Model the fold of this input.
Amino acid sequence: MKDGPPHVAMLATPGMGHLIPLAELAKRLAARHGATATLLTFASTASATQRAFLASLPPCVSNETLPPVDLSDLPHDALIETLMSEECARSLPALSNILAEMRRTTRLMAFVTDPFGIDTFDIARDAGMVGRRCLFFPGSLHALTLMLHLPELVVSVPGEFRDLAEPVRLPGCVPIPGPDVISPLQDRSSPAYSLMVHLAERFLEADAILVNSFDAAEPEVAAVLRQPKPGRPPVYHIGPLILTSSDNITSHASDTAPQPPRAACLEWLDRQPARSVIFVSFGSGGTLPAEQMRELALGLELSGQHFLWVVRSPSDDGSLSGNYYDSESKKDPFAYLPEGFVERTKDVGLLLPSWAPQIEVLVHEATGGFLTHCGWNSTLESLVHGVPMVAWPLYAEQRLNAVMLSEGVGAAIRLPEMKEKETIAVAVRELMAGEGKGAAVRAKVAELKKAAAEGLREGGAATTALDEVVKNWVGEN
Ligand code: UDP
Done:
């Protein structure tokens, strides 16, 4: 047995949405179990944002970037999912060497990967991680359930999900309308579809699935997943694991849209009445088509509410995930706003190009609502800080999250499919001040805030789940 603390190897495929919660998991393992961890990342995402984030982590969490691999043969319009899994597949030899070295020099206790890295399981087995290969699922229990049932849905669902007349019904889940099933599953002929089915099949090889959610947010499905099921790995609800500060993930300023000093938006919030501001942001990569950006601007103005909006220029091709690998606007995003909008709303609104210190904004007492793309990290951050949501999902699993939040637990008001200024204004006003649905959503979110904190305390559900995972790792060692 080697000296030193137990060590965990964690593979984070591209995207801050994978890296951030894995880093938080590493910090919890260090604080509670005295473990150290290496976050293994890919060269394609070694952006300034990612580098700054990794550099900010405590010494117990180190980083190793896998050597770059050539992806130039992939079609220029290859989907994000394809890029991620190809980069992973081509990095397997390097990863194998790294794990072998880690095993030689540390007390390697476990291997954890996010879903897109699951093809590394064979290598992890060869590195001696039998019984200790874990899937970290950075999404909701609803999304996990969908993936776990995917191999059978592929057979039972004829045609495309989006054409289904009836919603998809899964154990413990809110019925999921076909168009709200995750976006890579919406086209059976797409490589992303086959990839998701492949990943889902391999989920079953995990020795444990650690999922970044908590029971109160998705009570019925949580109860189902807590029950052991033959043939399915045990599922541990270890969330919510979220950033504690946005300090280290501030995007670097772009040339075309210089950012104000980041404290400026917090100072602006200091001057707004309590719970009066709706924060508007579409995650690290979400972009709106130009005409929807205009409707949003006019809807916010019409709502009469104060707002803080992270404005990003529309992507050239009209895609919703145009900036996934790089959150900066390439053009001046303000140029796309309706004429006179900035001047007319200057007393009630603040616009930020590209990026905001989201955690500090959500914590601020002036923030009373969050118009969000329903990325899972943003969702958890909103719940942890007790901020009710207006749901405007864009891509990936965001529509599914919107269903679960609005139709399930009741923590959000979802915008209708046709997003026009009037419908946006009505939803924003209802969330911030409405006495009907708005009041119910605000009360529910306050309840969930307490439940989330409860779970992470000593003896809380998330803490106990992680203790159990580590106990199993040590037992296998
Ligand atoms: N984020 C931020 N400022 C921004 C946009 C995003 O700090 O202007 C952070 C946010 O707090 C969250 C993450 O980036 O931790 C976005 O993750 P999420 O899963 O919500 O969405 P994704 O970016 O993966 O679509």
The pocket of uridine-5'-diphosphate is lined by residues 15-17, 20, 243, 246, 249, 281, 283-286, 310, 355-356, 358-359, 375-378, 381 (CB under 6 Å). The domain at 7-245+457-474 is CATH 3.40.50.2000 (Rossmann fold). The longest helix spans residues 437-456.
